[in-house]
Amino acid sequence: YPSGNLAIIITREKDQHTLIVQEDELKTAKIRALFQSDGRSTCYYRNGDEWINMSIHGGQYLDQAGNRVRRWMWLNLSPEPHVPLSPIFISLNRHVGVRILAQDKIFISFLAMGRQAKFNMGTKVQVSAASQLPPPAQLGEDELLLLAFRVRILQLFDRMRGCLNFPSTEQWNKIQPPMYLMTQAVKILELCMAADISDELRSSIKAIVNA
Question: What is the DSSP pairing of strand 88-91 with strand 68-73?
Answer without folding.
Answer: unpaired
